[in-house]
Amino acid sequence: MLKDFTSISKSVEVKKLLRFSTNTKKKSKKVPMDGNTAATYVSYRMSDLAIIYPITPATNMGEYADKWSAEGLKNIFGQELDVTEMQSEGGASGALHGAATSGALTTTYTSSQGLLLMIPNMYKLAGERLPTVFHVASRVVGGQGLSIFCDHSDVMATRQTGFAFMCCANTQEVLDLALICHLATIKTSIPFLNFFDGFRISHEISDIELISDETMKKFVDWDALKYYKQNSLNPEHPEVRGTVQSTEVYFQHLEATNKFYDSCPDQVQDYMDLLAKETGRQYHVFDYHGHPEAEQVIVAMGSGVSPVEEYLDKFPNKKIGLIKVRLFRPWSKKHFHDQLPSTCKRVVVLDRVKEHGSSGEPLFLDVASTLIGTGIDVVGGRYGISGKEFTPAMVEAVYKNSQRKEPRRGFTIGIIDDMTRLSLDYGEPIDCVPEGTTQCVFWGIGGDGTVGANKNAIKIITENTDLHGQGYFVYSAHKSGGVTVSHLRFGPKKITSSYLVTDSNYTAVHYKSYIGKYDLLKTAKYGSTLVLNTDKLTLKELEESLPGSFKQEIAKKNLKLYVIDASEIAQKVGLGERVNMIMQAVFFKLSGVLPVKESMDLLKKAIKKEYLRKGMDIVQKNYNAVDLGIESIIEMNYDQERWSKSEIEKAEKKKDEPWFIENIMRPLLKLEGDKLPVSKLMNGGRMPPGTSKYEKRGFAISVPKWHPENCIQCNLCSLVCPHGVVRPFLLTKEEVENAPQKMQTIKATGLKDKKAELEFLIQVSPYDCTGCTNCTNVCPRDCLPQFPTKREIEEQGKNWEYVTETVPFKLDQFKRNTVKGSQFHQPLFEVSGACAGCGETPAIKLVTQLFGPEIMVANASGCSSVYGGTYPWNPYTNDRDGIGVAWSNSLFEDNAEFGLGMVKSMKHQRSKLKLIVNDVLKNENEHKKEFIDLLKEWLEQYSDLHKSFKVSKKIKKYYKEHFVDLNGDFINNSLDCNVKQIWDRKDMLAQKSQWIIGGDGWAYDIGYGGLDHILASEENLNILVLDTEVYSNTGGQASKSTPRSGVAQFTANGKATGKKDLGLIAMTYGNVYVAYICPQANPNQAVKALKEAGEWPGVSLVISYAPCIAHGIKNGLGRAAEHTKEAVRTGYVHLYRFNPRNFGTNKNPFTIDSKKPKPGIEKFLMKQNRFASLKRSFPEEFEKKQKQLAQDCKNRYESYLSFKEMYGKDLKKK
């Protein structure tokens, strides 16, 4: 008998899933969940093993499976699912192949490039006819850029492997068709791929009906399963598989599988019919929807079918229709013809993918070949790529195009293509949602809890009323502090609208700074409700603060207006910036979807379940927030006529901005990127440097203000600032007096030139600061207290632009390779989209200050590529001469090789330049001595980063003065050819500092093979590993850097093995510079290590310990310096340097920079929720693994002592 899930689950969501899964007699009850959960719900029960690797947006499936397994949930075979995380998708597919060969029903979850890494093993699985199911949240395969949103490029890139492909159009279908796939793979011995649109379905929450375990069991072909297991690879009946085949037999073996693929569609249909008898939900290999005598028929698959269905239901008399593709492979012409109306004259095929250079996209080609000889015209088009909206209005445009005598072929819909002019125009939104549906839009900010609260609202409403619900959430690319928009729908009928809300009954603006920045009322219906979180609580104050255009829109739409100071309430009850529960209480009170008292009781019940693990004090604070929230709502009875005539504010005179900022970035910042035409976008997805500084988010509640009277000018505040918005400057008295706002300074101390009369300033950018408080907390003299952002913008906002853009840098007063001196150098990494208090970014920023401006960066995919390279925000910038960081991202797995390619390219091109210079020097008498001396100096400083840069500037200056005009064209065409070539190759004059940057998920796991190869080379390059000890970007999954007992995604009951020592492995090569640093804990050691790494002429590896939001640090990331110092003090982190330069000298190559650990590591670990949560969830595991972790740290330190002693003995012998 299966274990009752509710008795062992500590997860609210999981309890709900199983509460209804073991009783087939009762009527099915709707349960809210997203597509990822639905796929896992089935795959967990129908599989023996899950072999996984994280990739957005499929990661959650593996997380749920691991969590449920840790909690003891049984599959239909009476066992927990065995979940294994591999080092890459390639590794996962290889292990899956081995498991399937050996007789285990095995599943995996993946997406995008991850799926492509599985292709070789997909061929093997299909060729050997091994049952398995891959669940894929389909996503763009990155080309000119990386996108985490949906299209079908990943799936279509694998359609030739021999897998069967099932496509789902909504969350209910994900659950149902996942089961069909698992049943059919056992029956047919053909591997299946079950796919659904990433984010649009994988993360959309809607209520669905579950299928019980007993029903799943009843559907299984146990004889087929028995046959599979008994014929798996086993010494009891030995055989050889995976053979090498010659030309005589390979072709025949391939064709021998035809009969299995021919029968597969009918077998799939049999299971669809069986499911219909049990649940009433009928599916077909192809499903038709629309007029029985349709003349134009759309063919589509995935979430794109939903707006088409809605449009057809809205206009039932139009002779149009839709064929929904369920089973994409094997493609069945017979089943397709069975569904196509005999009246059809033209078919329009919609593909959610672009296949460059082809005669048509994949689905189009299948349909076109199916209809050969029928006389039916086939038109193809593309839609929805990278999650682009596809709405009923666009559906109408597609049908109108199909009704033309000469329709546009190969069209696009949803964009403006003003180059190839393939795009179709479409009209205003068409309301096609089911009648009686209430639609809501919530404008929140990343990290404020709005999304989580809205997910709770869906659960509360759908579980406690007869209403159906749907929720979809739009996120900014910023790791935190970006705009989030929640789109919720509730109604008496099932909702499958796979597009954003366009007519909202309720609009809530959670941040007043959004007013005037975004078109907040675009979706608001006439007479609907608007709630503003604002500190203007009287009508007079509100009228004075709101822009005239905003008041006009409110009046024009006759909106019911309510205000509440949720931010003040949140501060009052101790929730900081989290206004989510306050605004959620307001929603329940005003929406009337439930009686107020009942909704408040349910909301508090949800709060307790959500936050009890964090302590009852947190629960009580949220209770208080809810109570104050419903008491504090104020209705504003504005004068509609007067507001409708409000004076429109004059647009501020625009400051001259670069073309990219004005034409690309500004529309994107207003969330109007869909209006950008093709012609405006740069080929290859490139963007110029330093664009992020133009955003000026200004979302922090408070920012630091420098109090100079106590300052000791240590510059620690600047070094630890994650966003480069706290900086020191040296100014003359005249420069201070010319500042646009009052500027407080003190006399600069410690200058090289004792006679220099310079003032010292710490300047903050209040617009860009995230309010993390790192600078405030690291300051030894309390010189940076926090003050309200608005006040600081008014008092010092203009001074930031003045000092960063106008005041000359005085870089000769301090040594660059010191903590203090480095901070006077312009950081060429600034204002990134990283989390407030991010522990990674100070190390990157420091690299640019020590080695800029001639820096090349190869960046692995991950957090550092998202905050470092998300279009259009580029935090990597240039100096005032236009030279700066050249940055690029290839993939997750190949970053080391990518960086190697860069350095080899530069090395080769510079060597050619060197040959040319030497050729010129052979005839030095033909040129002026000044020019020859410059070339000789360049040869002398050829390999020196900073000196070659200085010489390159002098050579360029000489050319401009003697050889070229202002346009860079040669004045004298008869000039020596080699002299001309030097100018043509001037970009290669300066030596480049090559950096390969990535997180521990890359360096320790998926990219380790390539990294190891680079370590074994002798190239002059530097590797910076940002060690957060988890996959930060995909939600905090365990990596091989995760320490024992650490609770992370995929290690719900605490990691069982210890942390991989990447540094120690690298040291075994002997010729690699290796250091482990933490800039927040020991800035001096970090600067010294980076300096030595840059100076080493071979490979250097610097691992930087980085506190992360995924650690759950109880005092927050604002206390990073304090927390990391404790980590070093207690021996959790060890700082060291291994310098090969010291071989052959009287210095030990290995230096331990941290002191002998002091007691207290257990206390330290409890300050991170990733360790403390294990004690609450799995106390027995906690006791065992925490002791092992403490011993791991002790053993590591002792191994370092042994390492140091070993080299010390060598020194003594010498």
Descriptive notes:
It holds the Pfam family EKR. Residues 702-731, 760-790 form the 4Fe-4S ferredoxin-type domain. This is Pyruvate-flavodoxin oxidoreductase-related. There is one protein chain. This protein is an alpha/beta fold and 1214 residues long. The protein contains 44 helices and 38 strands. The strands form 7 sheets. The protein has a 9-stranded mixed β-sheet. An 8-stranded mixed β-sheet has the order 30-29-31-32-36-35-37-38, sandwiched between helices. Strands 3-2-4-5-7-6-12 form a 7-stranded mixed β-sheet, sandwiched between helices. Helix 3 links the parallel strand 2 and strand 3. The model is unreliable at 1-27 (pLDDT under 50).
What's the layout of helices and strands?
Blueprint (H helix, E strand, L loop, with lengths): L11 H8 L10 E5 H12 L2 E4 L6 H12 L11 E4 L3 H13 L4 E5 L1 H5 L2 H9 L4 E7 L14 H4 L7 E4 L3 H18 L3 E6 L7 E5 L3 H7 L2 H9 L19 H6 L2 H22 L6 E5 L5 E5 L4 H10 L5 E6 L1 E3 L3 H7 L6 E6 L10 H9 L6 E7 L8 H11 L8 E3 L9 E2 L13 E8 L4 H15 L3 E8 L7 E9 L12 E6 L14 E10 L5 H7 L2 H9 L3 E5 L1 H8 L6 H12 L4 H16 L4 H16 L2 E3 L3 H5 L14 H11 L32 E3 L11 H5 L5 E6 L1 H5 L8 E2 L11 E6 L9 H5 L7 E3 H17 L13 H4 L18 H11 L3 E5 L3 H7 L16 E4 L5 H28 L6 H12 L4 H18 L14 H8 L8 E7 H7 L1 H8 L5 E7 L2 E2 L5 E2 L23 H6 L5 E5 L5 H13 L3 E7 L14 H10 L6 E3 L11 E3 L8 H5 ...
Helix pairs in contact: 2-3, 2-8, 4-6, 8-12, 13-16, 17-21, 20-23, 21-22, 21-23, 22-23, 31-40, 33-34, 33-36, 33-38, 34-35, 43-44
What would the keywords be for this entry?
16% strand, nine-stranded mixed β-sheet, single chain, Pyruvate-flavodoxin oxidoreductase-related, pyruvate, Pyrv/ketoisovalerate_OxRed_cat, electron transport, iron, eight-stranded mixed β-sheet
